[in-house]
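Anyone able to model this chain together with adenosine-5'-diphosphate?
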Amino acid sequence: MPAARGGRPRGRVYWSLEQAVLALALLGGFPAAIALAWIAAGQNYSFEVRWTLAAVVLAVWIGCAAAAYHMITHVLYLAANLLGALHEGDYSIRGTGAKPGSAVDLVMKEINSLGDTLQRQRSEAVESTALLTSVMGAIDVAVFAFDMNEQLVLANPAAERLLGRPSAELLGLSARELRLDRYLTADAPRLIDRPFGPGSGRLELRRSTFRRDGKPHRLLVFADLSRALREEEQQAWQRIVRVLSHEINNSLTPIKSIAHSIKRMISRVPDVPRASEIQDGLMLIESRSGALGRFLRAYAQLARLPRPQQQSIRLLPLARRIAELENRAPVDVRAHEDVQINADPDQLEQLLINIVRNAVDATIETSGRVWMDWRQTDGYVELTIEDEGPGLPDTSNLFVPFFTTKPTGSGIGLALSRQIAEAHGGTLALENRPDARGCRATLRLPLPV
Ligand code: ADP
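re: yes, here you go
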């Protein structure tokens, strides 16, 4: 008899089911054969009749037993083949042909419904994997999954971008090799400042665990909060600039016009004592209030950056034009490949002029070179402007409005440029060149899809 459910034999098994069926079929016919032989022995049959009768009875008896054996083995092999196909993942195969309502029909129906269930589960698994993959690809949050041995088993596109390497290169590396081991044990959630270099911004680290194939795995999640924090910051100083401009302009305008009127009045009155000194003083008041007004208007630009009016632009002619505008020092355009991007031409030009001007300002001291280059990477164009100047003073304040190290600087160039880059769905970062003295500005803008 077959083993009990769960694989544990209930007792010793001597015969298989099909052998038992064969034995029972033979045994079932045995009393009838003996009875027939006994009856035939009492009759006055000839030798040939007896043997013919015996041959027919034996043939039918053994034939029926063999047919019963064959039928039972056929059903069992059929069920085994169907289950084997399910096991191999072929859920399209179906068992049919049994008499409705029979035990074999019931077995076939159960196997068929098992196939349906497995097929549904497989398509659900495929759909959820596809959903998970597209969610992981679309989110701007870097996700790393590590197995028990702290080896990377999963990295989404944002994680690839964060480390600047494709996942084919990253998978299988240890947390230590990726320099992520400290985050597996560090306090979380918490804010980390530029953990992967100046381009990585302020990230929030979160950690969690999950099980795969019954084994514990750890998940590291890095969310870039720089943009959100910057937007908050921007809104705060935009409000301050608006209020200050309004208040200061309210006072500046009468100061300037009164100074102007007094100057004119004094020039008409003869013999005013110390007239020229008074004129100089009033001129100074007038010119300084004018300068202060212009200065405030420049800041107000930051608070009122209009939404970009995007159109298709060719990068190569734009870059060449900006390089030619700079007449204090030569600016090379190294890239030869033209790239088509969607951007507001005035805003993008303003951004590039600011960065090139800063680079030239820096190199004038050292008589170094300035050059522009770009390349296309995963849906973005990455434009770099490098110089051979002294490098950056303090990278954490660069994009803070009003921050300047130049005697006549306004400190709005970089803040405005970053605002423009982000309004175009891109980023702007400045860092010191890793290989030599000087600064590298990297502007990333999305390529049209
Ligand atoms: P401004 O040019 O008016 O100073 P920016 O916002 O354009 O304002 O620049 C802020 C500061 O960033 C500059 O004063 C300078 O100290 C620094 N900076 C920008 N670009 C460079 C560069 N290429 N090399 C060195 N320092 C730079």
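Residues 311-446 form a domain with the Heat Shock Protein 90 fold (CATH 3.30.565.10).
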